[in-house]
């Protein structure tokens, strides 16, 4: 029994020695100090001394006072040497955008994966991490903060040219693009109302921008307002000014769009492209138009034919009903007068 038990223990030890390892690391980029509106990356590295045949399973991350964008379907491949041993793995990135100035704590996350040659699923945890978000210089408490490494602001007016008249509609579109900032974190630009114009804001289009390979680049927001001209006069759609924090140069910047001016005139009455009366006057004919009698008869016959054709179904139904009644009507009875003296009993003798 002892040799068998010893062999079994040696087999189990060899099996455990051949079992692949799973290591989980985590870090905050660019660090543990950011400003409100500036995204901090939580990079989670999942490593093994074997290799992965499929991706790891990561939990959802919810952090009050922030907007969290989870890792996308793709991960970055990496290789590391730890204590002289080579590990390969995958890097997943959570993008955390703080919306409040305060300290944040990220609890350990449990990551699960099954490396090649593993007999079962393995798991590991990230270390607990903390960071602090402060209000950037030039912004007051409660003021929305837009932080980006670069910002682009543009506008368009549809239709672009005039002239405009009372009752016409035009649409102003404002496009905001920010590098390094998710689309959901972009604030709405200020679009003030204008007297004499009915304003109808449209639903904004918010999306993320990528590098063409699925990697995150930034966000985009398109706001549209449709204006309806209610009176004549000169109008001006106000200029738009966006305040934002330059995360590269660490200072406050402003991006502006110029005002849009246009003029609207009163709508005139409709004038036909050509006038029959004017044409008749040019030909020396009186304004009153006379038609030959046979034209009227022909028109009436045509209208009658059209009416009969349109109602042909009803006419056929009536004709069939008349034919049925004629075929199945009751026999006629003779109601002629009977003679008062059929036997001639009281005839006068001649």
UniProtKB/TrEMBL annotation:
Source species, domain of life: Bacteria
Signal peptide: 1-17
Chain segments annotated as transmembrane: 291-310
Native species: Pseudomonas sp. WC2401
Protein's name according to its UniProt entry: Protein BatD
Keywords, in A-Z order: Membrane, Signal, Transmembrane, Transmembrane helix
Annotated InterPro entries: BatD
């Amino acid at each position: 029994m002892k040799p068998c038990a010893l062999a079994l223990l040696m087999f189990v030890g060899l099996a455990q020695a051949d079992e692949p390892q799973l290591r989980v690391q985590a870090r905050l980029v660019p660090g543990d100090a950011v400003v409100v509106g500036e995204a901090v990356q939580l990079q989670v590295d999942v490593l093994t001394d074997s290799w992965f045949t499929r991706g790891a399973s990561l939990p959802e991350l919810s952090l009050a006072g922030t907007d969290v964008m989870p890792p996308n379907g793709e991960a970055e491949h990496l290789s590391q040497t730890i204590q002289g041993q080579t590990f390969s793995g995958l890097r997943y990135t959570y993008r955390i955008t703080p919306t409040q100035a305060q300290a944040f704590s990220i609890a350990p996350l449990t990551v699960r994966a099954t490396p090649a040659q593993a007999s079962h699923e393995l798991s590991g945890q990230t270390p607990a991490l903390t960071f602090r978000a402060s209000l950037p210089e030039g912004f007051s408490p409660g003021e929305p903060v837009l932080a980006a490494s670069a910002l682009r602001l543009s506008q368009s007016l549809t239709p672009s040219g005039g002239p405009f008249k009372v009752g016409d509609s035009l649409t102003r579109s404002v496009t905001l693009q920010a590098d390094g900032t998710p689309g959901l974190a972009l604030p709405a630009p200020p679009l003030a109302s204008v007297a004499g114009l009915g304003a109808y804001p449209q639903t904004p289009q918010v999306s993320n921008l990528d590098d063409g390979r699925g990697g995150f680049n930034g966000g985009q927001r398109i706001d549209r307002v449709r204006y309806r001209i209610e009176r004549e006069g000169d109008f001006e759609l106000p200029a738009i000014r966006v305040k934002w924090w330059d995360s590269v140069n660490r200072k406050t910047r402003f991006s502006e769009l110029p005002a849009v001016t246009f003029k609207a005139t009163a709508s005139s009455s409709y004038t036909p492209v050509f006038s029959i009366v004017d044409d008749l006057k040019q030909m020396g004919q009186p304004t009153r138009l006379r038609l030959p009698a046979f034209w009227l008869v022909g028109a009436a016959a045509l209208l009658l034919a059209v009416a009969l054709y349109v109602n042909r179904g009803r006419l056929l139904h009536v004709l069939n009903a008349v034919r049925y009644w004629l075929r199945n009507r009751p026999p006629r009875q003779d109601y002629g007068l009977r003679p008062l003296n059929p036997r001639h009993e009281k005839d006068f003798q001649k």
